[in-house]
Amino acid sequence: MLSWPKYTHPKNRLGLMSENIYKPDLMEVLDVTQHTSDVKSVRIRFQDKKLQEKFSFQVGQFGMYSIFGYGESVFNICSSSNWKDYIEFCFRKTGRVTEAMWKIVPGDTIGFRGPYGNSYPMKNWEGKDLVFVGGGIAMPPIRCAIWYALENRAKYGKITIVYGARTVGDLVFRNDLAKWAEFSNVEVLQTVDPGGETPDWKGKIGFVPTILREAAFDAKNAAALVIGPPIMIKFSLPVLSEAGIRDENIYTSLENRMKCGVGKCGRCNCGPLYVCKEGPVFSLEQMKQLPEDY
Predict the structure, then answer these.
(1) Residue 217 phi, psi (nearest 5)
(2) What confidence tens digit (pLDDT) does each residue in 2-59 have?
(3) Model confidence band, residue 276 (pLDDT cutoffs 50, 70, 90)
(4) Which H/E stretch holds residue 26?
(5) CB contact at 8 A, 125 and 250
């Protein structure tokens, strides 16, 4: 049996024990970008300059973002940990909080708690080929790892990115995808479901697991990160395993079901662990120990 990492009490951005673990810090909205009909990304910065200077996080961690009077939602920090002027998150308009979040503009104030959770094992991935597999709105939690790897390009081998959505209009961060393709030893495969293409579409047509089989990487020395709709993950994991990537080198992130972010509400409880505390990043080896219905 694997042992789960020890959880430590959340600390505030100055490294001190927080007096109120539910109290958000005030953030200024710097920029809002609309990617699709229901997806936006937001750049924010601490209003307290001292907090901004001290703040740091690791790629793969998440935060709680609040719209005062409406509530808060959990999203991955989708900017690289190397970027110090702001942090960025991305969301889909799906309910009360995100409906209110959709209306924010630069200059507004929102709340932020974090960073929480564990992170992608970027250090352990050094020297390996990296395979990033995403679907739809799952690109943001992968984006932070891709940028981090590209900003430390000499530490990693070939980078393969397979990203798909139902239609061309559902693809997010398309400008980033174009930039990534310009780096050396980087393969970017974009795809849309059959029927989701447009007349000018130059990418692939097909489901992500099928396109993943076309990617070329050294499976014996590769690590993979797979995030997306459950059905996509279900059929992508066997492709990676059949290619020869070991379970301990295949990772995903389980952000759904999290509410408080600090292991108090019990909403993300899964067998012997809390996803917000021991996760949200897990290897396939760890995932196989979790209850099958999670």
Answers:
(1) -155, 160
(2) 555 554 445 444 444 457 888 999 999 999 999 999 999 999 999 999 999 999 999 9
(3) confident
(4) strand 25-34
(5) no
Alpha carbon distance, N-terminus to C-terminus of the chain? 19
Name, in order, each residue with C-beta under 8 angstroms of 137's C-beta and a sequence gap of 6 or more: 39, 90, 92, 172
> Which residue type does 128 have?
K
55: helix, coil or strand?
coil
* Among the listed residues 200, 207, 241, 206, the one whose alpha carbon sits nearest the alpha carbon of residue 222: 241
How many residues make up the chain in this entry? Answer: 294
Q: Is the dihedral of CA 181, 77, 227, 121 positive or negative?
A: positive
Among 222, 206, 291, smallest CA distance to 254 is for 291
* Rounded Cα gap, residues 197 and 212, in angstroms: 18
Distance from C-alpha of 67 to C-alpha of 73, rounded to nearest angstrom: 9
pTM of the model: 0.90
CB neighbour list of residue 67: distance below 8 Å, 6 or more residues apart: 97, 100, 101, 104, 110, 111
d(CA 9, CA 100) in angstroms, rounded, equals 31
Computed on alpha carbons and rounded to an integer, the radius of gyration of the chain in Å comes to: 19
The whole-angstrom distance between residue 253's C-alpha and the CA centroid of its chain comes to 7
Average pLDDT of span 256-271: 80
Q: What is the mean pLDDT of residues 147-152?
A: 97
Residue 15 is predicted with a pLDDT of 47
Are 273 and 294 spatial neighbours (Cβ–Cβ below 8 Å)?
Answer: no
Q: What is the mean pLDDT of residues 198-210?
A: 96
Residues 6+ apart with CB under 8 A from 210: none
CA distances from 287 to 72, 239, 259 (A): 27, 16, 21
